[in-house]
């Protein structure tokens, strides 16, 4: 008697479906023949997976553009009848955006509100704003991805420590929003979300080993190692922003003195300029004023450049990434600033590691990060977690309150 296969046909089908989704996610719209080539699967297997995904509403089939011969219909992740939402929790403003399943954000469908001082108010505002996007006629909302600016304990799906948005400490916005909105909600640390955005639609498309240095609200680091974020023992790795660079420096939001993020990020620059001008100014406002010639910040930029170079060199020396993406609004201040930081970082980093590392400005945004969290969750969540190979998704991260398998 033929031994029973340990792989159930149903599970095999799901693995094939995920392969098809991943190919469409990273390669864009293509035909069934293209999918056969991209996935290496047999044509009937591809067709079966495609039919199942069309039925589930995750794919749509588009008429080919007019041309010679008989061009094949093109398949893509659905954009007409379904959406996902990305929810960015940030220090001053929170934003909710609508996106197609391929990560294409619709800028007209954005909701924004000031970050409140109470967690319950944050939930109320998120729910009321999300409802205005969810209640669109004929559009199914597949889920919400949440980007949280602080450490996330992925085992318990809770915010652990967010010096900049402390109302999320000990809370699980994903579980709480899922309960209120009744659709899958997943959350990820901002830097991990930015990594996923860069892989979905930025410079790291299809890459497995790269790093993301986020120098916006604080200084955060996401490291993708063999396709998944490097989490450390409790998911708290990568806090480069809280290493000491000035022994008697300013008090940091974490309670220590002279942390890197007190001197090397958008918020640090805003603080310095606000102090000099004796009025609070945001990084956006600073960018506007500098561009209009109303403000000169040469001294602040000189010091910022040196500290940023220290941060970049540290990442290169510690993690030897093939690609280092840097995210921050400050680089809009001066076209030469980023190149100057990179040149200085290369002087500070170890030669061989630096030579191996491409350093670029991140192309993804926090909004795309939040969207990428839910898109990856939907694609990977097709296959149960225990059957997933190493190198996909975040271990242990499942849709809050949802069935097992909802891993990012
Ligand atoms: Zn600190």
Short recap of the structure:
With 408 residues, the protein is an alpha/beta fold.
What percent of the residues sit in helical stretches (DSSP H or I)? Answer: 25-40%
- How many discrete domains? 3
What is the CATH architecture assignment of the largest domain?
2-Layer Sandwich
Distinct ligands, ions and cofactors found in the model: zinc ion
Characterize the overall form. Answer: globular
Tell me the Rg in angstroms. 22 Å
Question: What is the oligomer described by this structure?
Answer: single chain
Through-space gap between termini: 40 Å
Write the layout of secondary structure elements.
Blueprint lengths: L8 H19 L4 H8 L3 H13 L3 E4 L11 E4 L4 E7 L4 E7 L5 E10 L4 H16 L5 E9 L2 E3 L4 E4 L11 H9 L3 E5 H12 L8 E5 L5 E6 L2 E2 L36 H12 L5 H9 L6 H22 L3 E5 L9 H12 L2 H5 L2 E4 L4 H15 L28
Parallel strand pairs: 3-6, 6-9, 10-13, 13-14
Antiparallel strand pairs: 1-2, 3-4, 4-5, 7-8, 10-11, 11-12
Bound molecules: zinc ion (ZN).
Zinc ion (ZN) binds next to loops.
């Amino acid at each position: 008697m033929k031994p029973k296969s340990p792989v159930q046909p149903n599970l095999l089908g799901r693995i094939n479906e995920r392969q098809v989704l991943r190919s469409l996610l990273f390669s864009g719209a293509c035909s069934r023949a293209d999918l056969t080539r991209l996935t290496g699967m047999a044509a009937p297997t591809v067709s079966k997976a495609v039919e199942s995904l069309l039925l589930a509403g995750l794919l749509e089939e588009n008429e080919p553009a007019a041309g010679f011969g008989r061009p094949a219909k093109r398949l893509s992740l659905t954009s007409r009848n379904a959406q996902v939402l990305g929810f960015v929790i940030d220090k001053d403003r929170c934003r909710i955006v609508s996106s197609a399943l391929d990560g294409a954000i619709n800028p007209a469908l954005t909701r924004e509100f000031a970050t409140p001082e109470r967690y319950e108010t944050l939930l109320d505002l998120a729910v009321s704003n999300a409802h205005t996007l969810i209640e669109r006629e004929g559009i199914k909302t597949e889920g919400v991805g949440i980007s949280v600016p602080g450490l996330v304990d992925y085992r318990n799906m809770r915010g652990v420590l967010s010096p900049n948005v402390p109302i999320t400490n000990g809370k699980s916005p994903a579980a709480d929003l899922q309960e209120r909105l009744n659709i899958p909600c997943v959350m990820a640390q901002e830097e991990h979300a930015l990594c996923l955005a860069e892989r979905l639609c930025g410079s790291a498309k299809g890459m497995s080993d790269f790093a993301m240095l986020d120098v916006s609200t604080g200084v955060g680091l996401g490291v993708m190692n063999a396709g998944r974020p490097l989490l450390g023992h409790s998911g708290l790795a990568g806090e480069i922003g809280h290493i000491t660079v000035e022994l008697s420096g300013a008090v940091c939001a974490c309670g220590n003195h002279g942390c890197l993020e007190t001197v090397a990020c958008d918020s640090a620059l805003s603080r310095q300029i606000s102090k000099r001008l004796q009025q609070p100014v945001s990084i956006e406002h600073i960018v506007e004023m500098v561009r209009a010639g109303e403000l000169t910040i040469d001294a602040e930029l000189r010091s910022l450049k040196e500290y940023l170079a220290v941060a970049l060199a540290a990442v290169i020396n510690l993690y030897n990434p093939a690609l280092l993406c840097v995210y921050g609004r400050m680089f809009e201040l001066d076209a030469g600033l980023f190149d100057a930081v990179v040149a200085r970082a290369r002087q500070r980093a170890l030669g061989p590691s630096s030579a191996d590392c491409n350093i670029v400005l991140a192309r993804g945004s926090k909004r795309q990060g939040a969207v990428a969290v839910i898109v990856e969750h939907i694609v990977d969540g097709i296959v149960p977690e225990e059957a997933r190979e190493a190198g996909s998704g975040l271990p242990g991260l499942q849709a809050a309150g949802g069935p097992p398998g909802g891993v990012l």
